[in-house]
Amino acid sequence: MIRRSLRSGRVIAGGLIVLAVLACALAAPWLAPHDPDEQNLLTTLLPASWQAGGDPAYWLGTDSLGRDVLSRLLFGARVAMSVALIAAFGAMIVGAALAYLAGYVGGWLDWLVGRAVDVWMSFPPVILSLILMTGLGTGLRNVILAIVLVDWTRFCRVLRSEVIVVARRDYVAAARLVGFSHWRTVSREIVPATIPLVVTLLTLEMGIAVVVEAILSFVGLGVRSDQIAWGQMIADGRDAIYQAPWNLLAPVLAIFFTVAGFNLLGDGLRRSLDVRMTEGRE
Q1: For the segment 166-190, what is each residue's pLDDT rounded down to a tens digit?
Q2: Which ranges of the chain does DSSP label H, i.e. alpha helix?
Q3: Whole-angstrom Cα distance, residue 243 to residue 248?
Q4: What does the pLDDT look like over 116-156, one tens digit per residue?
Q5: Contact between 201 and 155 (Cβ < 8 Å)
Q6: In Å, how far are 16, 93, 144 from 140, measured between CA atoms?
Q7: Domains plus CATH for the chain?
């Protein structure tokens, strides 16, 4: 039943979108028709090739420095996917580790982790990311670190509640009675029961990481100026939206479809992996 569920429309659609973006990111040096940093002041702010005044050599036109928009879009996918994958997994590892520890052990440790999460989440995530980037400085590594430091709470808060519920079930108590160690109880009984939730949170966090990175790059606190990011493209293209609209529309649509792909994939996997929902469809 789970195998059939993995072929659901949400999983297929979301997976295809994510794979397409990932493929573009990996193959950007070969797919890009031009050097993304090559400037040509004689061809600045060209519209898309199918619009009046467009050049067939530049499918999505050029920016204010004559750089090819399509090439920059493809190379920008590398930063977006790097942040999505690395930052999301980093936040998951930190948040999940604390959630399993606090939810299973309980007591003062659970209270301490819960209060830490409450305090940390009282700060607006984007504002906190901007503050961290101001202190850390620009760069891809610092963007990833800032997202991990901010978003581990998303995993910890939701997963901790689920771990508390699972830890009170009869089969967990039975595992302890037959002599399972704490580590074996958590790894064999509690973790498998919470995998659907972890997968859902992970894929949603990947989409959030793409948006956060774009916001940071838009305000100039993301990647370095010599790196290409979709947020930078939006910032550069907003002043020439009427002359060359694809400078702005292309990265906006790229962010939209990438985040939509992660969300569809996460929702589809949750429906496929959650035993309760699978049994309800049988």
Answers
A1: 988 888 888 888 888 888 888 888 9
A2: 2-5, 9-26, 28-31, 69-105, 107-121, 125-136, 140-167, 170-177, 182-185, 191-218, 230-237, 246-273, 275-281
A3: 11
A4: 999 988 888 888 888 889 888 889 999 999 999 999 998 99
A5: yes
A6: 26, 19, 6
A7: 2-34+59-281 (1.10.3720.10)
